[in-house]
Amino acid sequence: MNHKLEIINLYKKKISLLKKHNKLYFNNDNPIISDSDYDRLKKEIINLEKKNNFLKKLNLNNKIVGSPPSNKFKKIKHLKPMLSLSNAFNKNDMQDFINKIRNFLNIKDKNIEFSSEPKIDGISATLIYENGILIKGLSRGDGVIGEDILENLKTINEIPKKIKDNNAPSLFEIRGEIYIGKKDFNNIKGNFANPRNAAGGSLRQKDPKETSRIPLKYFAYGFGAVKPMMFNTQAEFLEKIKNWGFSINPLVKVVKNLQEIELQHSQIDSIRSSLDYDIDGLVYKVNDLKLQSRLGNTSNSPRWAIAYKFSAEKAVTKIKDIVIQVGRTGAITPVAKVEPVTVGGVVVSNATLHNEDEIIRKDIRIGDTVKIQRAGDVIPQVISVDKTKRNQDSKKYIFPEKCLCGATTQKEVNKSTKKEDAVRRCLKGYECDFIAREKLKHVVSKDAFNIDGLGKKVIDQFWDLKLIRKPSDIFRINYNKIENLEGWGKLSISNLKKAIDRSKIIDLDRFIFSIGIRHIGQENGKILASFFKSINKFSDLFNEKNRKKILENLIELDGIGQIQIDSINSFFSSNKNVEIVKTLIVELKIINFKAQSKNGKFSNKTIMFTGGFEKMSRSEAKSLVESNGGKVLGKISKKLDILIIGNSKPTKKKIESAKQLNIQIIKEIDWYKLLDL
Ligand code: IVH
Fold it and tell me: Which among 119, 289, 298 is the best mutation to test ligand 1's pocket, defined by most ligand atoms within 8 Å of the CB?
């Protein structure tokens, strides 16, 4: 149990770290880790999931990649969500990718073909055609809701405004990547760090005339909704749309096996710098669209595609200083201020050093010459120190023992492993101004109160002006004091007021997540909300006696362990915290928890399998049940509704007990019929 909890906690930490970096990158345009670090973090999360199936059930890893839409443009829901891709970094990763596909589809011998396509480092967009006419153009946004940037997209000459073929689908959603050619970028540069930012900036101009000044180009690479469907393979799709006037990357190729994948990888890598657009890898997609649809998606990426990345770009620079940053959980993160250096076209002046242990392990010192790495535009990291270049009088870096607020920091000891945590923390919570400010940023963030127009920079601004110090202050802002500030006008204030008012109605699970109890992430917010059901019941935690009793019951909840319970206890043991939560509740309308039911053929049914299927793997069967609203169980019990029997070696005992319990039994052949397979 403890081991499992540790894994869950590690996993959650990584997920929230990823979210943090997503926000830094997408919301603030201020990434603090390198792309390859970012990719590594993503990979660590996926590896943890791979090794620990139970993590997937937490369902935390959804919607964690992508930029939330800004409020400049009208928001429109995508006809089909725009997913992101998982990454591969080497031949082994690609072998894993292929093996997984084979296992999922239960294909042993047949070769699987892949469409290999350059992964353009630009900005993705969706074009929607109705009866051949371009009627909508959206940015990716958070993948579910995008921004209406049609007028800006229309300024791109290469994008067909009309498909001149009566046989084209009557509804056609085309996806592609918008970019600026490297040469064009050199001519316009302006304030942009790299072509990708320039393309993004240009696409988000309020005035399409501004967009039209910048020579944007695009490559189409995929489709969303298509009616009627008329393609059998990805290659055929690309070929057809090329004939319809869409611009297709000339380096796409169908490959048949790992050797061909490797060959393509090194060939394209070798001509990469001569291309007029940035690419950071190759995308591999299962070519057969029927197989694609059988493979389906995990929470945020398709099982049928992967981005095989090229290695990260590196540069050498010098550390001018090491400073610390304080996070909302009190975690102290060291950051190297480096002499500005260009890495792959971007000027870098900050690089993360992760934590104290990392500094000790690599013996990183102020004044050191270091190699830093970044790929894409996310936060760079220091990867190694060139000790031959070190000054004789250089001194070991002593990690500060005090937080920026002056309080002594601590490394916690993990109760079960007895190991010291790598991260140093300030334990002052809301009493530390630096933590309090970060906590406020958490409160307003997308997964919490989701207040448009109240981003991190605004929180900093309002904090400095002493307009807000605690969450309830958000709902009592003195707008008169903002009116005359730079960057604020009548309209932006009225929009902010509206956004804040809207956020006053909040679901219980979001509220619980928002108050920022350590170890209580979104998923635990949901679990706790389903337990407490109402804010009144939740408020019983404020009282010490009640709390003790409640906490004893919480241990029975799947997903809540001792770490969470201790954390809830310590959070509410602080009078300051109780006060902060109480004053916040007064401002809000908190909605009681309601259990959700899913639609589909197995809506609210519990299903179990025994025996193997001929046409599919157990994973595919499970994902079919889940996408049809059902839940797969591992044991036969009265709670089970249906037992599905595969032809290959079903367990007799299971069938017997199911019969005894009067559980519905479905044979393999009827299972296919039920699903129209
Ligand atoms: S396929 C569900 N193909 O990479 C499949 N994406 O990390 C989704 N991209 O948001 C994407 N070139 O912006 C695909 N040939 C290509 C691509 C490509 C660039 C971008 C796209 C997407 C991101 C996925």
Answer: 119
The minimum-distance atom of ligand 1 relative to the CA of 297 is 2
**Catalytic residue from among 19, 20, 63, 119:** 119
Centre of ligand 1 to C-alpha 198, Å, is 18
* Residue closest to 27 by CA, chosen among 376, 457, 482: 457
Ligand 1 pocket test, pick from 97, 124, 249, 309 with the greatest ligand atom count within 8 Å of Cβ, gives: 124
465 in the same domain as 371: no
CA atoms within 13 A on the CB side of 386: 11
**In this structure, which residue's CA is closest to atom 12 in ligand 1?**
119
Q: Are residues 493 and 522 in the same domain?
A: no
Residue range 6-32: mean pLDDT, rounded:
75
H or E element at residue 118:
strand 114-120
Residue with the bigger pLDDT between 153 and 299: it is: 153
Distance in Å, CA 105 to ligand 1 centroid? 23
- Looking at the structure, tell me whether residues 238 and 132 fall in a common domain: yes
Q: What's the token pair of residue 146? A: 């995008």
- Residues 231-264 have pLDDT tens digits of 999 999 999 999 999 999 999 999 999 999 999 9
From the CB of residue 29, how many other CB atoms can be counted at a distance below 10 Å? Answer: 14
Ligand 1 centroid vs 221 CA: distance in angstroms? Answer: 7
What CATH number is attached to the domain comprising 104? 3.30.470.30
C-alpha–C-alpha distance, residues 607 and 615, integer Å: 19
* Distance from residue 581's CA to the centre of ligand 1 (Å): 42
pTM score > 0.85 for this model?
no
Q: Is 84 in the pocket of ligand 1 (CB under 6 A)?
A: yes
Q: How far apart are CA 232 and CA 249, in angstroms?
A: 20
Location of structure tokens 């990158």: 25
Q: Are 449 and 512 in contact (CB under 8 A)?
A: no
User: 178: Cβ below 6 Å to ligand 1?
Assistant: no
One-letter amino acid at 94 equals M
> What's phi and psi for 630, nearest 5 deg?
-100, 175
CB 77 within 8 A of CB 413: no
Same domain, 84 and 229: yes
**Residue 119 designated active-site:** yes
User: 343 falls in which pLDDT band (50, 70, 90)?
Assistant: confident
Token readout for 451 is 């207040």
Give the domain-ending residue among 476, 503, 530: 503
Residues 178 and 96 in one domain: yes
Report the separation in Å between the CA atom of 442 and the middle of ligand 1, taken as the mean of its atom positions: 29
List the CATH number of the domain containing 555.
1.10.150.20
- Supply the range of the domain harboring residue 39: 1-62+313-427
Cβ of residue 42 lying under 6 Å from some atom of ligand 1: no
Q: What distance in Å separates the CA atoms of residue 179 and residue 160, rounded to the nearest whole number?
A: 16
Q: Is the residue at 599 inside a domain?
A: no
Q: How confident is the model at residue 66 (pLDDT cuts 50, 70, 90)?
A: very low
Q: What is the DSSP letter of 257?
A: S
Joined together, the tokens standing for residue 106 give: 């239960």
As a whole number of angstroms, the longest Cα–Cα distance in the chain is 81
Question: Could you give the number of structural domains in the chain?
Answer: 5
Sign of CA dihedral 86, 106, 256, 220: negative
Give the residue from 239, 289, 303 showing the smallest Cα distance to 50: 303
Ligand 1 pocket check: which of 85, 123, 284, 298 to mutate, most ligand atoms within 8 Å of Cβ? 85
The answer to whether residue 71 sits within a structural domain is: no
120 lines ligand 1 (CB under 6 A): yes
Domain shared by 412 and 331, yes or no:
yes
Instruction: Say whether both 392 and 456 belong to one domain.
Output: no
What number is the average pLDDT over the span 469-497?
90
